[in-house]
Amino acid sequence: MEFGIEIFIIEIIGIIAFTISGVIVAFKKRFDLLGVVTLGTITAVGGGALRDILLGILPPSMFKNGIYVLFAFITAIASFYIGILAIKTIKRKRVKYYNLITFFDAVGLGVFTVVGANTAIVNGFGDNVFLTIFVGVITGVGGGVIRDIIANTTPFIMYKDLYASSAIIGACLYYALYQLHSNSFLCISISIVATIFVRLLAQKYNLGLPKFGIYKDKDD
Fold this sequence. Notes:
By secondary structure, the chain is mainly alpha-helical. The chain has helices spanning about 5-30, 35-55, 60-65, 65-90, 95-125, 130-150, 165-180, 185-205. Helix 5 packs parallel to helix 7 (about 165-180) and helix 5 packs antiparallel against helix 8 (about 185-205). The longest helix has 29 residues, at about 95-125. It is globular and about 50 Å long.
């Protein structure tokens, strides 16, 4: 199931969303312009690079097609200056850091989880259900994990509301639709929306897997 311009547009949406989530973390950590651009870009393309390495696509797409890094770079620069101009408004309206990052992270997570699973299928691994779902999840969560490690923050995947679980659900749903021969761009869209919906629903209602709950999350 391979698409051209549709997948490219979806990937760019994911790149922009993940870049902004990286920029927000960089703002919180008081990074300078170089740090903001670096963290935003790595967040955007990190998961895709891990996907390509796992699938043996070398060098990774980010190096063969510089348009992805370019979009991340431009988005990071624009977000940096927009953030500087809007910081007083954000503080005045008490926009919560975690709510902002959750929204953009959810969009990037949904897009890259499904695109990752689709990439595995397109490259001939459609009969390997575990690999396809695993690659999808790694593509979705990889950039965020790298972002959090660089920012010296506990990765969201380890403790936040159904973060990795949302990616697993999205990848499984897409694989199921693929097996049902839903040979349509619609199945990609449905899977992406489902992943985003589960992630945002979990955040809104504080849903999550059981955890050791003595301490309150710093970012809540």
